[in-house]
Amino acid sequence: MPVPNCELDGSSIVLVGNFNPAIFHPSWLSEHGMVREGDADQADIQVVSPEISSFTTHWLLLQVTRDKFQASTSDPRYFEPLRDLVVSVFRLLEHTPVRQMGINRDMHFASAIEQMNLFGEILAPKLIWKEILENPLMETLVMAAKRPDSDGKIFRVTIQPSLRVVPGIYVGTNEHFELEKQQTPHKILEMLNRFWGGSLEHAKKTAEHLISKVTR
Amino acid sequence: MVVDSCRDSARREAAPLGYLRRLGVDVRNRVKLLVITHWHNDHILGASEVFDAAESATIVCSGALQNREFAELIAASAHERLGELEMPEFARILEILKARKSAARTVSVGPTWAIEGRLLYSRGDSIPATVQSLSPSDSAMTLAHREFARYLPKYKEAKLTPVAQSPNNVAVVLWVQVADTRILLGSDLEESKNPNLGWQAIIGSKVRAPVLAHLFKIPHHGSDTAHSNDVWNQMLVPSPVAMLTPFIRGHKPLPSNTDIERIKTKTSEVYSTSRPGGWKPPRRDRAVERLVEGRLRAMTGGVGHVRIRWSVGATHATDIGLFSGAGAL
Amino acid sequence: MAQQSNPYQGVNKVTTFQPSLESKVSPAGSAQQTLLRSPSLFPGWARYVVAETPPPIGDVLTSNGNFSAQSDSLIANEKRAEPAVNVYPIPNLEPPKQSFRLVQKWRGTVVEIRDAEFVAELRDQTDQSHPREISTFRLDELSEGDERLVTIGAVFYWCIGYELTESRQRKLVAEIIFRRLPGWSRSEIAAVQQKASEIEELFGIENSTRAAARS
User: N or C: which end of chain A has fewer CB within 10 A?
Assistant: First the structure.
């Protein structure tokens, strides 16, 4: 069976802390050189308010609430610009209290139904389930471990049938970073710069390792 | 002694480390000196790995780096990962130094700084050996500040990656003597019209011994900007054994055909770690290759190897081995 | 107590996050968490509302979206307690309809600038075992406004891959994306200088006052 192709590949960076959503507007980003003027001009703004700001450009999804900042892209050309954007934002907003960070990657692989069934059987053998359930299927599997050489607290891998690439397999990763107490973004940005690349690389390797099992 | 480093990407290791280990050398205890002749990426990649393994080694850096500006450059490059390859290598070397400092509980285990005329190593046993740095000169060290200054952080200015500029006035040239055999390692030092810089400063130096070298590592990939007739006439025996490493500078492969012809008028024995003229880029997805056809050139080839063995007391090299694409020019 | 309007007015207009793009910042159940997860009407989907303060203990979110106290409001002789919350629907963010499959990426550093072009050293990000490469790029290959970013030492990403448009057209495209970082701030410069002082100490370099003049 051929190796399933990664059809959709996205990444997001999420921070938990205390934010002021009203600041976040596409023009603010372009004024500070974080995105192209053209991108800001063409942005689709859903809302910008003291409670929540939410807009998209052709490559960026940005959503900020009082306690959460989330920047995402589903275009792998823009993985590094996404990281740079988050770094730039919080270099400027250097007094923003933050406490946690999540570095996430979402990959959707197109695969045949037979491959999905094989995959589900490898990850969650059905024998004991069939003793009590009729036609059991694996819907979600989450595994967690600490990534070596990383200050991340935990690295989680989620496997599900893909809802975007059908039929297909979704592999999502989340690496969680936490500070002892809420503080300025300096330390979190240091961790982002140091561990972002490795986290995304590990996500890809994990997905490829798992997906390769369905080519037997 | 290990002078500079590069990475063997096929073996995924620092080339000098792999080589010494395959020879059965006890790197931990037998490597006494690691010399980083300058900070450019074709001379430093893998150096931190070598230093980490060579626990008994003193690290030697160019005196031109012994200043606040270079310290700021390392610190600035670590910020937002601005540095490409060179600065992260220095940053790792610093971490090793720091760890050794806390283990040794001494005030400083910092590098030895190579400057014109400094004796870096001396051994007086049955096979006496010395290593002396012939550069950088005082003037070169002053000029080095200017090169670093353009990349130092200034309020509101753009964050840029340091890029090595020409000419290279700060590289460490080494004079090595083992018994009666003398070696001139030219690093990347370039020539200058200024008598206080580059090879002119070395020729005119009062601390240089008036003896001739038998073996010559040709500087700066054989380029004409590093050529000095005075060096060939006043520092080398007639027709010495010479070697060089090819490279690409901008779009210009070094050594050029003109460079090769010039070098061959100076010696009949010159070896290169790989065939000059630039290298084809690696194979990639066919669609990518169609799109970039002709645009790309690899800056280095594989890790070629020129091995010169010289018995003590011999008047010429006893064995010259050429491996992995190395050859005579 | 004045009757508050149903804080969930319009809640049925709240669209949902699809689980695959759901942000995942743990730990769940944190006392600081004010993002409330409502009972899902659709298995596998989640709805979120934003509350300024968590609802009082004992309030339960009913299936039609109204808070109600656990006490039986039909017989209690007091008005039903309304939660002190402000609720804002979180718009659904759909990824773009087109997708991009990356095949090759390089990180480039500008090393030379000529009239209408620049030379860059490239590091393969797709296969890091490949040697460094060098190439020339024309300024007219850049997106509008990016020419001003071309300077010695500037970093960019050169990406090649297949773009699948909304109309399902597949195209092989190459794009140059310059790295965008804000200029040095005073606090960043101070941090760099602090780090440089540590390096000086390790290197055994005497302190210099030159740095102060530059900032």
Answer: C
